[in-house]
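dumping this here so i dont lose it
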């Protein structure tokens, strides 16, 4: 399956590159919830969790569906009046509340009439729709536009969430029971995140993301959208020009989508803590988002799979065992393996093309050695490729 971005008649202006603290907050919360998938940040995640107050740890568990498999669209720009780089204290309209609420102020039980009331009702419905998509871990095949008032949509949400690990169903029930209270709790937790860890993390991370955004903008201007988009994921993206239809960039993903920048701009957002994931979000009626790591993994699913397959051949395994000890010539390997030199050369060529063998020259001799560092990375590369 793949995500296809059609490029017919579109220029760099259709791919705005923005730096978003809310998007990076979501990425960092994802790491805190599943740090076993992100060993490079494991020590940081453990320290944050250890030092955090109980309320933070409770919120991290309760709201986990908002930043796990299907990232909550409310974390991304393109929804309200807040600028993409606005601080967490300036949230989009769909997340805002009717007015300031102190720690002892009761939550509102009714909405006002008039234009402000209409805005508030609309923003609450939007909050409910986006949260329902996340609780169901999908938006294709679902309609949650009236989930707060349509029993059929509410039943579909409960059924979808019940098939997922907790706390998806609990969060869905909280949404259906009291969406205003849930929205207030989410906002409280986001503020707590800023105080517990994200204020310091953002001060450190924003310059890195700003530089990455500048590089992508420059590449869009100099080389065009196709090269810039492929550069976001060199190992899993490719350009295609079919015999019929427009040129396109294809991302190897686990879901299918067709995105048309000629109809709506595609937001490109860099992330540090989101690596190695490259997320493509295209909820109905909203600008598509590509949330890309500032340093794209070098290994995709195809290369990781090919390396594994290369080591299933018993003759190739014997060859690797020999050159793991010391570098050897083709002639030496042919003698030791009872193979012809052309046979050995073919096996070595496969391993070289996959980056598993290094070549050393000593005078008139060419020696081949196993790149143990590359072999040691295979397991990690497979895990990275499967997450990307």
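and the seq i came up w/
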């Amino acid at each position: 399956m793949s995500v296809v971005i059609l490029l017919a008649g579109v220029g760099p202006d259709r791919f705005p590159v923005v730096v978003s603290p809310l998007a990076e907050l979501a990425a960092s919360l994802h790491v805190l919830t599943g740090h076993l998938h992100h060993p490079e940040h494991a020590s940081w995640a453990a320290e944050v969790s250890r030092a955090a107050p109980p309320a933070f740890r409770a919120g991290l568990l309760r709201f986990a569906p908002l930043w796990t498999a299907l990232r909550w669209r409310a974390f991304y720009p393109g929804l309200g009046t807040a600028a993409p780089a606005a601080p967490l204290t300036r949230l989009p309209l769909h997340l805002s509340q009717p007015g300031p609420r102190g720690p002892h102020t009761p939550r509102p039980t009714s909405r006002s009439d008039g234009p402000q009331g209409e805005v508030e009702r609309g923003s609450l419905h939007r909050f409910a729709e986006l949260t329902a998509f996340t609780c169901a871990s999908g938006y294709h095949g679902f309609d949650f536009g009236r989930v707060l008032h349509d029993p059929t949509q509410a039943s579909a949400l409960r059924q979808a969430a019940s098939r997922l690990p907790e706390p998806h169903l609990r969060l869905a029930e909280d949404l259906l029971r009291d969406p205003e209270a849930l929205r207030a709790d989410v906002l409280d937790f986001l503020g707590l995140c800023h105080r517990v860890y994200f204020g310091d993390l953002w001060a450190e991370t924003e310059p890195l993301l700003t530089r990455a955004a500048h590089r992508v903008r420059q590449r869009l201007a100099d080389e065009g959208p196709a090269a810039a988009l492929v550069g976001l994921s060199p190992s899993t993206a490719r350009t295609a020009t079919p015999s019929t239809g427009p040129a396109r960039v294809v991302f190897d993903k686990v879901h299918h989508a067709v995105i048309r920048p000629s109809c709506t701009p595609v937001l490109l957002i860099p992330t540090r803590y989101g690596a190695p994931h490259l997320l493509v979000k295209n909820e109905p009626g909203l600008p598509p988002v590509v949330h890309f790591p500032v340093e794209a993994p070098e290994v995709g699913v195809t290369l990781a799979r090919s390396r594994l397959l290369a080591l299933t051949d018993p003759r190739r395994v014997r060859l690797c065992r020999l050159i793991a000890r010391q570098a050897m010539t083709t002639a030496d390997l042919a003698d030791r393996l009872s193979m012809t030199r052309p046979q050995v050369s073919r096996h070595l060529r496969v391993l070289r093309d996959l980056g598993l063998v290094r070549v050393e020259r000593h005078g008139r001799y060419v020696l081949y050695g196993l790149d143990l560092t590359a072999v040691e990375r295979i397991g990690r590369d497979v895990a990275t490729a499967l997450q990307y």
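The CA atoms of residues 313 and 347 lie 10 Å apart.
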